[in-house]
Amino acid sequence: MVEEEYFWGVQLDAKTKEIEWNPEKNFPKExxxxxxxxxxxxxxxxxxxxxxxxxxxxxxxxxxxxxxxAQANIKTLISVLVQGKDHQRSLDLVFHDAPVKxxxxxxxxxxxxxxxxxxxxxxxxxxxxxxxxxxxxxxMEDEDDEEExxxxxxxxxxxxxxxxxxxxxxxxxxxx
Length: 176
Description:
The protein contains 2 helices and 8 strands, in the order ββββββββαα. The chain is mainly beta.
């Protein structure tokens, strides 16, 4: 899997009250037989900024509409900005499924939304299960099964030993 991030930004104002982020519009989600990479897109919105051009005391309200878990349509406010008082807001929003609609539901802005457009490419034949938490990934595939068995059980055992030790002093030591 290859992952890339690109700077992303949009302006909502009196002329453009709504935008739709949908990079997958021209990319079908089905796997392709020709070996072409299959892109997975995500949108990360980090900041909402009410421009200095907005009138004093203007209130700008921004709403997002997206598909959530189990295909539920989610429509909610993500920021309320007031010129001269609260003109910038840090956000930590990530949308993994397109389309995402962003609207200026009150005020005339301009409001700038800033973040990153993430693209992860998965190639035909790649298996998601080959990515291990230890970062070994494909290296583990080259080793024989006996060595894999020797590596995995200590990790599971270690997790069980650490769980009861959370509320008490460390029980490690003794063996070196």
